[in-house]
């Protein structure tokens, strides 16, 4: 794949960490990588954003933040409140396609979930993914409530003809409870395929070398890692 879109079932599910992990593995195997964030919200011009975390964790420095708005809102609302023009997904698509012509992998990280509005016309990350003909990697939670959010997002993707690149648990707890352990098989059922990965909680706090090791262990072969969903399932211990 030359372009990969990363979205989530919600905000705070680990999209940036998964984006960094995919970028880290691609860089490790010698691929040229660019990471694009069409809209960053919730940070001022002087504060670090999501791409700063991607750079710190992965070492990939070819990053592009196309718009930034200070309020922690959906991009359309944040632009409106700031009195700034909204991000143009048409222009974003043009830039991403240009980058795909000179890079082996371009990773596009969304804001919030798949259908969060980027402008007053209701354009979403799903629309951008269709414009650039890119598969979509879905990052989800492990906890109670994730099944509904995941099912709705996958259904929205299918309805729009988007190609799924897999489902990754963005933050797998060190001590998973019954809900987390039980949800794994249901997430795979919803995705109609094994998990594409599960990154441990706290991965974003690691140094670059440790993060690279974690990315290799936490992402599946399609994403450049060695995550084995069958072996992962054997650790869940659903029954005494």
Automatic annotation (TrEMBL):
Substrate binds at residue 41. Coiled coil: none annotated. Its cofactor is Mg(2+). GO terms for cellular component: cytosol. Mg(2+) binds at residues 16, 52, 109. The active site is at residue 37. Gene3D superfamilies: P-loop containing nucleotide triphosphate hydrolases (3.40.50.300). One of its GO terms (biological process) is biotin biosynthetic process. It is found in: Cytoplasm. It holds the Pfam family AAA_26. Pathway: Cofactor biosynthesis; biotin biosynthesis; biotin from 7,8-diaminononanoate: step 1/2. Its EC number is 6.3.3.3. Keywords: ATP-binding, Biotin biosynthesis, Cytoplasm, Ligase, Magnesium, Metal-binding, Nucleotide-binding. One of its GO terms (molecular function) is dethiobiotin synthase activity. ATP binds at residues 12-17, 52, 109-112, 170-171, 200-202. The keyword Ligase applies. It catalyses: (7R,8S)-7,8-diammoniononanoate + CO2 + ATP = (4R,5S)-dethiobiotin + ADP + phosphate + 3 H(+). Its main location: cytoplasm. It comes from the Bacteria. Homodimer. Belongs to the dethiobiotin synthetase family. Catalyzes a mechanistically unusual reaction, the ATP-dependent insertion of CO2 between the N7 and N8 nitrogen atoms of 7,8-diaminopelargonic acid (DAPA, also called 7,8-diammoniononanoate) to form a ureido ring. This is ATP-dependent dethiobiotin synthetase BioD. The lineage of its organism: Bacteria, Bacillati, Actinomycetota, Actinomycetes, Streptosporangiales. The gene is bioD.
């Amino acid at each position: 794949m030359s372009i990969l879109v990363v979205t989530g079932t919600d905000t705070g599910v680990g999209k940036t960490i998964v984006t960094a992990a995919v970028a880290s593995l691609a860089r490790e195997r010698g691929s040229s990588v660019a990471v694009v964030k069409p809209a960053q919200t919730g940070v001022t011009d002087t504060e670090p954003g999501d791409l700063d975390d991607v750079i710190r964790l992965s070492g990939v420095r070819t990053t592009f933040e196309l718009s930034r708005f200070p309020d922690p809102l959906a991009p359309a609302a944040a632009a409106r409140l700031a009195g700034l023009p909204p991000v143009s997904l048409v222009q974003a698509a043009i830039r991403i396609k240009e980058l795909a012509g000179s890079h082996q992998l371009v990773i596009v990280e969304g804001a919030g979930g798949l259908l969060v509005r980027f402008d007053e016309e209701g354009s979403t990350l799903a629309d951008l993914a269709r414009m650039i003909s890119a598969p979509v990697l879905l990052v989800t939670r492990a906890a109670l409530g994730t099944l509904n959010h995941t099912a709705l997002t996958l259904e929205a993707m299918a309805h729009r003809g988007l190609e799924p690149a897999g489902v990754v648990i963005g933050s797998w707890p060190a001590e998973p409870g019954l809900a987390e352990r039980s949800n794994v098989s249901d997430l795979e059922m919803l995705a109609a395929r094994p998990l594409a990965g599960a990154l441990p909680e706290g991965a974003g706090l690691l140094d670059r070398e440790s993060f690279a090791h974690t990315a290799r262990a936490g992402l599946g072969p399609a994403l450049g890692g060695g995550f084995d969903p069958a072996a992962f399932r054997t650790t869940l211990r659903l029954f005494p």
